[in-house]
Write a structure and sequence with these properties.
alpha/beta, Rossmann fold, seven-stranded mixed β-sheet, six-stranded parallel β-sheet, 11 helices, 22% strand, globular, Enoyl reductase (ER) domain-containing protein, NAD(P)-bd_dom_sf, oxidoreductase, oxidoreductase activity, acting on NAD(P)H
Length: 320
């Protein structure tokens, strides 16, 4: 253990990080455009997901955790955020998912950001009894998770992508309603799908005119859940008359919201849902690993992630 590390506080653990994926939010954070993140000991921690082994525990933590393989969720805007792109990480016990001793670090290191975001969507879907939804950026790792979860929960879903090959990929995953937003017939296809399924929730990480086009085509009393801004150059404007006529609701959603919405028991049930699925093969929450890179090559790894975003995860290895 690095002797330069500070002493552990109450409910803290020391984790030796073996794998840390690159999420889109990590790249924004690396460029300093994600927002204010508190708690970093080195000025600007990076990395919201990771996996490793517990080396030491602080007061109030069961000594039995030492040696356990864990996924770490260093979610933004949460207490003690330091970032998982490092060799050693001090974090709170509550930021861990515990896995069996033979769990693969590369496979479990993406247990928080995307899966818990999708679980947050599930919380809204079940609470509001949505029978059908729409999602944009459906070819992303998170989008595929939401698609598979909707199939599992018998929720109808319209997937929006940007390329014909992405339509085919989602159809191979069982999608019956996947639309290419760049198609000349997109608006007509969208209207037809909405008429058939009557979706009343839109989960959107894109923004821009696409978001507005979809929401204004949806039934009255629909809700737009904003969880990203991939269209960084795009803006959209609603006037009050448009929103009033649709009785539409605009809100934001974030992975850390689940902590606020749920009891500790409910939160643990979501963690168990995710960890059990990933360990058993990732039918819903699994993510393909495209490649691995030493942490020192993070700039090259980020460039590769941006070129292969819909294919799976790029993993950083702090000890290579």
């Amino acid at each position: 253990t690095d002797n330069s590390l500070r002493e552990l506080g109450e409910n803290e653990v020391l984790v030796k990080i073996h794998s840390a994926p690159i999420n889109p939010s990590d790249t924004y954070n690396a460029r300093g455009v994600y927002g204010k993140l508190g708690g970093s000991t080195d000025g600007h921690g990076i990395g919201f997901d990771g996996a490793g082994e517990v080396l030491k525990v602080g007061k109030g933590v069961d000594e039995g955790l030492v040696g356990k393989r864990v996924a770490v969720g260093q979610l933004p805007f949460t207490p003690g955020y330091e970032g998982s792109w490092r060799q050693y990480l001090i974090t709170l016990k509550d930021n861990l998912m515990i896995y069996p001793d033979d769990a693969d670090f590369d496979k479990i290191c993406s247990s928080f950001v995307n899966p818990i975001t999708v679980c947050t969507f599930l919380h809204h879907i079940e609470k509001n009894k949505y029978k059908a939804i729409i999602q944009t950026a459906a070819s992303s790792s998170l989008g595929k998770m939401l698609h598979r979860l909707c199939l599992d929960k018998d929720v109808k879903i319209i997937n929006i992508v940007r390329k014909d090959e992405q339509v085919k990929a989602l159809e191979d995953l069982g999608s019956t309603h996947t639309l290419n937003s760049n198609s000349e017939t997109f608006k007509e296809d969208l209207a037809k799908a909405i008429e058939e399924l009557q979706p009343t929730a839109l989960f959107d990480p894109v923004g821009g005119e696409l978001s507005k086009t979809i929401l204004m085509s949806m039934p009255t009393f629909s809700t737009l859940y904003i969880y990203g801004s991939l269209d960084t150059a795009g803006t959209f404007t609603y006037n009050n008359r448009e929103l009033l006529s649709k009785r539409a609701t605009l809100t934001t959603v974030f992975a850390t919201d689940l902590v606020k919405f749920c009891t500790p028991e409910e939160l643990q049930s979501y963690y168990e849902l995710v960890s059990k699925d990933i360990y058993e093969g990732g039918k819903i929450f699994g993510t393909e690993v495209v490649s691995t890179h030493p942490l020192s090559d993070f700039e090259k790894a980020i460039a590769e992630r941006e070129a292969s975003a819909s294919q799976g995860k790029i993993i950083l290895k702090p000890w290579e």
